[in-house]
Write a structure and sequence with these properties.
By secondary structure, the chain is α/β, with parallel strands linked by helices. The chain has a single domain, classed as TIM Barrel. The protein contains 11 helices and 10 strands. The strands form 2 sheets. It has an 8-stranded parallel barrel with strand order 1-4-5-6-7-8-9-10, surrounded by 6 helices. A two-stranded antiparallel ribbon has the order 2-3. α9 runs parallel beside α11.
Length: 267
């Protein structure tokens, strides 16, 4: 069984528990009663380049990631660095995140938040809206075209955007056909967890001009940011190097500046 399959088995168990604790009908009522369903135009945050800073506690391949700052300090440093969005990992068993992390970050900042998790059921989309997400991650390999289109439509109806994560040309084409705007190219193979920035280079030419390419995983240095920006990325999602940094704001600024430089923009 691959790491991804193990994560999904664990997620299905937790999802059953969540649905028992808060049934879908009640969850829908809470969202429709309390949430502003107006979409923000998040595309403006990535003109011509942007950084998504991630709150990440662990990974299946490396285990617990030591933070240099506490959560409030980390969020403040991300803000000072100029992130476009903050991504919060909420998967509990392999990334040691959780919905409580998301709630805390939501209370600490007005910056748009991306809920990053293994989302494959309608319930999780409603739950993300309930938590206050502005964007959610949809992993293309977990979907067929019909279900992805349906879930993307619901996401937009609930006032959120979706970052559709792709690893192959077929997944990119499916994401575009489903109506995706934010297309993430994952430089990490979710079956082996091997990383290569060449994944972004290989798939960038498939991304049409009306979509935004976000390069995910394996970006640790300004040189990495410069490279994927030259490949065509309009944004990067960076986690481990940010939480490990003693000065995330400075690190994020360096990534942003080199990304903009690659686009021919001096900040």
């Amino acid at each position: 069984m691959s790491i991804l399959e193990k994560i999904l088995e664990s997620k299905k168990k937790r999802l059953r528990e969540d649905m028992e604790a808060l049934p879908l009908a009640e969850l829908r009522n809470q969202v429709l009663t309390n949430k502003d369903l107006t979409n923000q135009d998040l595309r403006k945050s990535f003109q011509p380049f942007g950084v998504i800073g991630e709150i990440k506690r662990a990974s299946p391949s490396k285990g617990r990631i030591p933070w240099r700052l506490c959560l409030p300090e980390l969020v403040r440093s991300y803000e000072e660095g100029g992130v476009s969005l903050i991504s919060v990992l909420t998967e509990e068993d392999y990334f040691q995140g959780g919905k409580e992390d998301f709630r805390k970050v939501r209370s600490l900042t007005q910056i748009p938040l991306l809920r990053k998790d293994f989302i494959f059921r309608e319930y999780q989309i409603w739950e993300s809206a309930y938590l206050g997400a502005n964007m959610i991650l949809l992993i293309a390999s977990l979907y067929d075209l019909e279900t992805l289109t349906k879930h993307l439509k619901l996401t937009k109806e609930l006032g959120m955007d979706a970052l559709i994560e792709c690893s192959t040309a077929q997944e990119v084409l499916m994401a575009i056909e489903a109506g995706g705007i934010f297309l993430g190219i994952n430089n990490r193979d979710l079956k082996t967890f091997q990383v290569s920035l060449q994944a972004t280079e290989k798939l960038a030419s498939l991304i049409p001009s009306h979509c935004l390419l976000i390069s995910e995983s394996g970006i640790h240095s300004p040189e990495d940011a410069f490279k994927v920006a030259l490949y065509g990325a309009q944004g990067i999602l960076v986690g481990e190097s940010c939480v490990r940094s003693p000065n995330p704001s400075s690190h994020i600024r360096s990534l942003l500046e080199t990304g903009l430089k690659a686009k021919g923009v001096q900040k």
